[in-house]
TrEMBL record:
This is Uncharacterized protein.
Length: 79
């Protein structure tokens, strides 16, 4: 089972809610492999505790010049 899938279940609660959040018809196939575009969206969402790893998707991370720092959650401004 995919670690990211487990993170998504913990965050959203059900496969139906995962499907709704990412605009897919079914998230059951995520158990084996979460699509890369979903992994990237999870990385960009500071509320989801996941950091994208290009090696997990067959990408040569050494050849990519990516800043893989997790975005911080925005804080509300007073006023």
């Amino acid at each position: 089972m995919s670690t990211l899938y487990q993170i998504l279940i913990n965050h959203f609660g059900t496969e139906a809610k995962i499907s709704q959040a990412f605009g897919v018809t079914r998230a059951q196939h995520f158990k084996n492999r979460v699509p890369e575009h979903v992994a990237l969206l999870c990385h960009l969402d500071p509320r989801i505790p996941y950091t994208y790893n290009p090696d997990d998707f067959g990408r040569n991370s050494a050849a990519l010049t990516l800043d893989l720092a997790k975005p911080q959650q925005a804080t509300k401004r007073a006023g």
